[in-house]
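Bit of a strange request maybe. I'm writing a small parser for structure token strings and I need a real example to test against, not something I typed by hand. Could someone generate the tokens for this chain?
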Amino acid sequence: MAQEITAGAVGALRQAVAEAAQRVLEAMCFADVIGAADEDLGTDAFGVEVRFHGSERGLFRMWMNEAVSCRLAADFLGLEEAGPEEGRQVALELANMICGCAVSQLARNGALRLDPPCATAAAMPAHATRLAMDAGVVAFTLDEFEEVEKPS
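Reply from user aminoacidic:
Good idea to test on real output. This should exercise your parser:
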């Protein structure tokens, strides 16, 4: 049974997600993460999400624009260039890795299950955390710890 999560724990998890994002982006895509950003992602931004269940439960979402996804995909896959399809596929995998890394740090003694990552049409909220890197900006959120209904 899931525990009641306090506001402090949600803040700690958001910090864990920022740290996990930096570690994953640097290790898997050789990205140079500069720090917090406030830039807009542009009109071609898209989102991906990962739901997680178990001792902790919630919804991780990440947004980036096509140019950033293609750059990260090329670096991740060891290619000169990557197209939009590779960019979206790598964004799904990165969301899965970042979410798993962050949540497993805070749920060390609990069971955890991640649903497969998928695209989301959810708009990026104003409170999304944004990270600037040499490739551009990536944004993410972690929704409240409640059983979130899957889209139909």
